[in-house]
Amino acid sequence: MTGDAHLNELGEFLKARRAVLSPRTVGLPDTGGPRRVPGLRRDEVALLAAISTDYYTRLEQGRTQPSAPVLAALAQVLHLGNDQRDHLFELVGRQAARPRRQVAQRVQPQLRRLLDDLDATPGVVIGRRMDILAWNPLAAALLTDFAQVPERNRNYVRILFTDPSMRTLYADWRTVTRACVSHLRTLAAKYPDDPRLTSLVGELSVQDKDFGQWWGSRHAASRTIGTKRFYHPVVGELALDWDTLTCSTNPDQELVVWTAEPGSPSYDGLRTLASWAASHLGESAAGRVT
């Protein structure tokens, strides 16, 4: 079979697979109205796989050769079993790498101890995919009570886009979230076969137009240190410097902290917020539920 024939067969295989899936199956809202085609539309598959509709259309038309990360994303989106996944890769002359089963993330003990010692500094431990693994009471008071967020949804980027309070908490929400999308793209390139990361990107691409636009723009943002401004409902305006400490034994985990210049209004605001947290948040605010 020629290369063109293989690509044509790939296109037919993709069309057949999306035709048997419903929006509800892949986590998309189902309006219940009539659909022009059975199963998923091309644009829906493209969004879930974090590729452009034009690129996916060319795949179905047999006009382009997909990369291994794109094939892995499509296998996840189309709910392919192992044999079907192997066939998908074979159609373009590639060997499918079995997705490795990832061990559940648990915060590293040394980061946990550091976090426990931060009485007057908000801090969170972020893992791969920017999942929130642990936090201290002041971080819960500053950002959100993470204990009230289901563990599977306890992801920093997801919270930024889905929690309406984030859009008023951050003085420049768009800059903050766009930088996070840029970092998430870096992680997606690092872990192309991570099904939960693929699912997160697809879900947010469908739910939020800004996410989809920024994901496709390939904007590169620096992620080192900086200052974030908050409009907090309890203590008012805060200007906090943030920094990260990467765990030497597990580089996928970082301790992120927010601090203020001693004697500044923001410094006093953090201490007022710490007192408020002590009286208003329960034990779960210490972030020991992961």
UniProtKB/TrEMBL annotation:
Pfam families: HTH_31 (PF13560), MLTR_LBD (PF17765). This is Helix-turn-helix transcriptional regulator. InterPro entries: Cro/C1-type_HTH, Lambda_DNA-bd_dom_sf, MLTR_LBD. PROSITE patterns: HTH_CROC1. PANTHER family: BLL4672 PROTEIN (PTHR35010:SF2), BLL4672 PROTEIN-RELATED (PTHR35010). Residues 39-84 form the HTH cro/C1-type domain. Coiled coil: none annotated.
